[in-house]
Batch of 2 targets.
Target 1
Amino acid sequence: MKEKFLGVDVSNYTYAQLKENIMSDINERRKSFIVAINPEKILHAQKDADLLHLLNRATYQIPDGVGILVASKMTGGSIRERVTGIDMLLALCEQASLHAKSIFLYGAKPGVAEQAKDRLKSMYPDLQIAGVLDGYEKDKEKVKETINHAQPDILFVALGSPRQEYWIVDHMHELDVQVFQGVGGSFDVLSG
Ligand code: UDP
């Protein structure tokens, strides 16, 4: 279910519903794409029709920003729970470790994804991390081959916004991955 804010769709799912839906996407081999929506992205999309279209192409637009909750309440909507990009990442890592699904961390400066991996491993010892790759690799074929070789169920993409969202839409159909999430600076946060 979605609500629209200045033309941008936002899903009104709670964490619990998102976790359930995304695990079903993996089990039923449906590709899905998660984008975090905040008021800044909604404003950018007003001046950029391509970005608006891109945001609305995502499967789940999570309400990352209290401004969205306020706007939903004011317009009679039902979004009451904030879902941040990093908390969604953690929730998916927890689900992956509980259900034997694997993840891959792509993005951030060399060494950062590796440190984020160590942090996630200490939080979820059973988590299968199929691989990591920094976000400055220039060889596009190598990026694709590395991810396809690792065959993760979930790919977290930390290239900054909207670069990561464009990257996901351009590559999701050629990658052997079910779930894609753009996570901005989350690897930097996890590694720090
Ligand atoms: N980044 C990257 N490749 C690039 C440009 C940026 O991997 O070509 C990474 C950068 O190192 C940082 C993240 O993308 O880890 C962007 O974080 P930022 O907090 O700026 O993103 P936002 O959450 O604002 O979209």
Target 2
Amino acid sequence: MDSRRFLVGLTGGIGSGKSTVADLFAAHGVTIVDTDAIAHALTAPGGAAIPAIREAFGDPVIAEDGALDRAAMRAIVFADPQARHRLEAILHPMIGHCCELMIAEASGPYTMVVVPLLVESGRWRQRIDRLAVVDCPVEAQIARVMQRNRFERSQIEAIIAVQASREARLAAADDVVDNGGDPQALAPQVDALHARYLELAARKAAGPGGAGETGPAAATHRDEEGR
Ligand code: ATP
């Protein structure tokens, strides 16, 4: 693994717009490692996590096609926090392993990992160089997910209640992408952040004493990194 490669973490609450924002970074050629997509692959028919999940929770959580029955699993973990921990104990190490493989294989000056619960995860916070948060009002999250998933409002509120608060995410952020308005407002913000990440990635690649660490800009970099 190239530990000099700059790693940006992208997070945000449910329906905040992480995937929409990640797609804009991908359009700049940034490799996106999406933990949700990895979790889906691990729990698809024939997925690597299916045998362990079946052993832990039994056949009722496995659909006829061999995939995880998400609705059944969601009902169990909402009713029983211990069940959530058991599921996470199966999935998180596998997701982490897949992420590291993808990060190691990534090309380009920096890589972006999309982690819905990044602020809640000590391991990811240690791992990344920079944290970008997609932010929007809670009401917008609810409206978007109601429209996209046809979930009940109460279901979405229950998910939001177990995620970090909007305030906690903003407090942890190095950079904020404001997605409270029109989706067209995203591209200029992403363009500006991409330019900044290219610069920070180049400095990290140059290493201590490298060209990137000298000159007036280095002080800004250290200030920013100290946040
Ligand atoms: P999740 O956490 O559920 O995976 P997400 O944070 O990745 O969601 P997206 O999937 O990007 O969020 O967006 C959620 C939904 O809201 C999508 O249907 C998307 O098209 C829509 N959406 C994203 N941004 C906006 C916006 N600014 N205005 C209106 N709709 C939006």
